[in-house]
Amino acid sequence: MGKALLGVLVALLAPAVAAAQGISRAESWGAVATPAPGPVRIIGSTGLGCIAGAVELPDDGPGWQSVRVSRNRHWGHPAMVAWVQEFAGRARAQGFPDLWIGDLSQPRGGPMTYGHASHQAGIDADIWLDVNPKPRVPAAQRENIPVVSLVLPDGSAVDPARFTDRHAALIRLAAEMPGLDRLLVNPAIKQELCRRHSGQAWLRRVRPWRGHDSHMHIRMSCPAGQPECRGIAPPPPGDGCDATLAWWFSPEARRPSPRPPGPPPQMPAACAAVLGAR
Ligand SMILES: [Zn+2]
To answer: For 47, phi and psi rounded to 5 degrees?
Structure first.
């Protein structure tokens, strides 16, 4: 067999081989540079899933600049990409400077080798809580933008020298956007929002989670027409400024949670075709 023909065969077989090697391997998903062909199809959940037909958020536009674009993680369901663009436009109309946009999903979603456990189904986005005026920066120079925590090192509260009304207003703007399922911020940020805005309906969608002291994590509800997308239960009624928030400041919350017994959950089998599609 000629070398050229062998090369073609290897290229043809490579995706199938990668799929067979185990669709739960993050390396497999991280190595694919392009989306699977459409139509758009979300399979599974944000913590264990994938997406075909994803589209890419442009590196910048009115009101936003994506950071660390070399990671190739600014892909998502078209509704997610439109959400980010709409949000950036609304923030801009309210006088906010450009927003730094962190990771969305990989071109086909799936697990990542570093950085996130979720972001697997094209419906998550990280938006930095940086409301300082900023110039237009060439994309290549947005790889190492300093990350500034808004929370004290001991995690007990926001840093009063850093957290402002503008941060609260930006979070509220996101929390009130259509299509949002929930928004994750550090427990200390949620606590501060409760202190300032207790009882307000938008707080229900702002949920505490570890990390997230410099950015908010946007999670959309499963978009319409995606029957294989698995959402999670909506946040309980109320503003969440209650015992569930107080728990995050308990010694128990600071201990790493034990791994649940049994084999790790498997990705939906249909994701093999998404990983291998050409
Ligand atoms: Zn995130």
So the answer is: -95, -10
